[in-house]
């Protein structure tokens, strides 16, 4: 059996890992010109971490993780307004760069990746699927997997235009990593955030000389600005704390990640021999904080169903995969929409309420309940 996987990100690479071990021949297609190192910090936990453990990836994840010992808020002068210590006994979280998670998965995958290309056309019948790439080559396979993220090209070609599937959550998000030993020491292994109504900026140290930055801004217009770095400087440059310094060196894409915050709700996850995987069909958004975990879990579930399938008709396996994933994804998406008003509060009153909540949550006993409530379901996926 042969699969073409479009998108060599978290979901696509995790699926390639499984399919190769099940004897499939796998080819990957990636739009980026080379392996994507850049990115942002993610908290990896829940079913994805469970799956990664069963895949034998925990030792490598331990090597690349950057533990966070505290989360808290500061004001424009850098003064701390609320904090919560992260302790043993909370739901286990591995904090790491998205690129490092992708690399840990990719290290154990042999499938060739065609960088700098994407899918131009798809034709399929009962016997197989033919994929034409933008580099002019044609490839035949038993299955085409669209693991190409929120703005999936495979989804557009096979299922319809993006606006049918994407729910805009009214915010823009940006992230990048800067090299700065002094700032990294000042912020330390503590996730520090500054919020004013409709804006949030967060930072934490990645090792000894890097700092990961995250920016969130309420914006009714989903269109991404022509100069995202200038837009960040305009909106966040006057807020104080470390922001004028870090924004002075703000890179442009691709080192700067900048996008709309969206969720993806696709009525159908497969059509014949084409299946969607990861953010392409189940994006939960950073408000839910579970996307990478669910991407790795979905690859586990899809691979399991494909292993159990007879070689001819893959449709029942693809249907079972979607039926197992959908309820968990819907739960996490709903959690993300409920969490949204607390991540980038819309008023000073809400910001004060959030600080009080965090102070209450830091009381002994309440801290564990609070932290574990941020980790909705999904463990039952990995059986
Ligand atoms: C700022 C931010 C913070 C986040 N924090 C967390 C967190 O704390 N915890 C968590 O679990 N999740 C988090 N997420 C979500 C998580 O990053 C995603 O859900 C996860 O990366 C999804 O994996 P994926 O493989 O489906 O998509 P991606 O990781 O986006 O990979 C898609 C791949 O497809 C490629 N591609 C795109 N278009 C094409 C095309 N046309 N042709 C070929 N290739 C293409 C891309 O270059 C990429 O390599 C966060 C997301 C953001 C933006």
From TrEMBL:
Coiled coil: none
Protein name: 2-polyprenyl-6-methoxyphenol hydroxylase
Organism of this sequence: Microbispora rosea
Top-level taxon of the source organism: Bacteria
Residue span, FAD-binding domain: 3-159, 264-332
One Pfam entry name: FAD_binding_3
Gene Ontology MF term list: FAD binding
Matching PANTHER family: OXIDOREDUCTASE-RELATED
């Amino acid at each position: 059996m042969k699969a073409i996987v479009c998108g060599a990100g978290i979901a696509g690479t995790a699926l390639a890992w499984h399919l190769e071990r099940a004897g499939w021949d796998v080819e990957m297609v990636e739009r980026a010109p080379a392996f994507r190192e850049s990115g942002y910090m993610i908290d990896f936990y829940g079913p994805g971490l469970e799956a990664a453990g069963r895949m034998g990836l925990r030792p490598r994840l331990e090597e690349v993780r950057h533990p966070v010992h505290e989360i808290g808020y500061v004001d424009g002068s850098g003064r701390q307004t609320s904090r919560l210590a992260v302790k043993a006994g909370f739901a286990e979280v591995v904090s790491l760069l998205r690129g490092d998670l992708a690399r840990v998965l990719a290290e154990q995958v042999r499938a060739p990746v065609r960088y700098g290309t994407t899918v131009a056309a798809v034709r399929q019948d009962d016997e197989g699927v033919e994929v034409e790439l933008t580099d002019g080559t044609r490839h035949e396979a038993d299955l085409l997997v669209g693991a190409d993220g929120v703005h999936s090209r495979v989804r557009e070609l096979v299922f319809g235009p993006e606006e049918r599937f994407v729910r805009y959550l009214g915010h823009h998000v940006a992230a990048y990593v800067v090299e700065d030993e002094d700032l990294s020491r000042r912020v330390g292994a503590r996730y520090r955030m500054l919020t004013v109504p409709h804006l949030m900026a967060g930072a934490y140290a990645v090792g000894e000389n890097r700092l990961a930055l995250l920016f969130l801004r309420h914006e009714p217009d989903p269109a991404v600005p022509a100069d995202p770095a200038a837009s960040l400087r305009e909106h966040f440059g006057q807020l104080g704390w470390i922001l004028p310094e870090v924004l002075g060196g703000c890179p442009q894409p691709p080192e700067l990640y900048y996008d709309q915050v969206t969720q993806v709700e696709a009525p159908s996850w497969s059509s014949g021999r084409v299946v969607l995987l990861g953010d392409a069909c189940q994006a939960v958004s950073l408000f839910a904080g579970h996307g990478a975990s669910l991407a790795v879990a979905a690859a586990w579930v899809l691979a399991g169903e494909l292993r159990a399938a007879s070689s001819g008709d893959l449709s029942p396996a693809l249907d079972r995969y979607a039926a197992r994933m959908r309820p968990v994804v819907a739960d996490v998406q709903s959690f993300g929409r409920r969490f949204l008003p607390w991540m980038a509060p819309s008023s000073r009153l809400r910001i004060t309420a959030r600080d009080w909540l965090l102070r209450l949550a830091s009381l002994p006993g309440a801290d564990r309940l609070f932290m574990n409530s941020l980790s909705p379901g999904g463990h039952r996926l990995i059986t």
